[in-house]
């Protein structure tokens, strides 16, 4: 039985937090909400504030209209609470497993889902990129910029434990806004 996953969950399952940030960049460049310079050093410029998903909104909030280097935007997005909540959702769906030391990697079911996603590419460009990575992109400035970046790290990934550090909470969901995340309510 295939899990119902959005493009950003697919991205985390197939490539981790860096792939999630890169998938958001693909989505935002596809419809012009972000533009990318034609040559290195690559800069991103925000042309719209409208995010259709919390990961996109998180990325858009980081980019001023004057622009920022692509590496900075991708790193801060990959490290954001909304991307960590994506991991928590995959843990809830039993597609990722987490060690007691905070390392996260695909479960057996997650490995099967990754294989299924690789065998049946999506018609949606962002979901296809999420599953396959940069090879799914057509030639152009976006593919050139992503190819010029260091490769995405491979599983396992280290995530902070629930309630520790940067506001990560295993119970979080995509619908949570970043504004109320620092309440520190202890149980």
TrEMBL record:
It comes from Actinomadura fulvescens. Residues 109-118 have a biased composition (Basic and acidic residues). Residues 104-124, 139-187 are annotated as: Disordered. This is TIGR04222 domain-containing membrane protein. Residues 175-187 have a biased composition (Gly residues). It comes from the Bacteria. InterPro entries: Ser/Gly_Cys_C_dom.
